[in-house]
Automatic annotation (TrEMBL):
InterPro entries to which the protein is assigned, alphabetical: Terminase_7 (IPR057972)
Protein name: Terminase small subunit
Region (Disordered): 130-155
Lineage of the species this protein comes from: Bacteria, Bacillati, Actinomycetota, Actinomycetes, Micrococcales
Matches recorded under Pfam families: Terminase_7
Basic and acidic residues: compositionally biased ranges: 142-155
Length: 155
């Protein structure tokens, strides 16, 4: 199945080339609005244009991406690719189910599901737990809290 597994190394060799990782500075941008545009349709044998209406489900999906912590670092190229994916989403929710595979592949690249995030090595941190760990590190506390069930095992 396409879209599974690690990308090939490109040199016919094994292993990773992480030692030569190129790091660039990129500025995140706010999510753009879904665009207004016209589509060509046929009415009574005549070709005409009409305004494209985004399905309500796609508008909800677009808002979900705006609210996602995953999108906080998106650049303009990320949003552009996701906007193209929004059009596939709209067509899918309008009945064009043959687009399901392509839609799945595209949203996977953005970490849409837990499996996708695991493959991309992305993990959500619970804010309260992360703050507690940070505060304990700053205070030099290394042992688990008194209510921690691991204390019984360490006994």
């Amino acid at each position: 199945m396409a879209g599974r597994g690690p990308a090939p190394t490109g040199r016919g060799g094994r292993g990773s080339n992480n030692g030569n990782l190129r790091v660039i500075v990129a500025e995140s941008v706010d999510q753009p609005d879904l665009p207004d545009f016209d589509v060509q349709i046929e009415i009574d044998g005549e070709m005409t244009y009409q305004s494209f209406d985004w399905p309500a489900r796609t508008r909800e999906w677009w808002q979900m991406w705006a609210d996602s912590p995953l999108s906080k670092e998106f650049t303009s190229t990320d949003w552009s690719e996701l906007m193209d994916t929004a059009l596939l989403h709209a067509k899918f929710w309008s009945g064009d189910t043959k687009l399901a595979g392509e839609l799945r592949l595209r949203v996977a690249k953005f970490g849409a599901t837990p499996e996708d995030r695991a493959r991309l090595k992305i993990q959500f941190a619970a804010a309260d737990e992360a703050e507690d760990r940070r505060d304990r590190r700053k205070q030099g506390v290394r042992k688990p809290d008194g209510d921690d069930p691991r204390l019984k095992l360490m006994g």
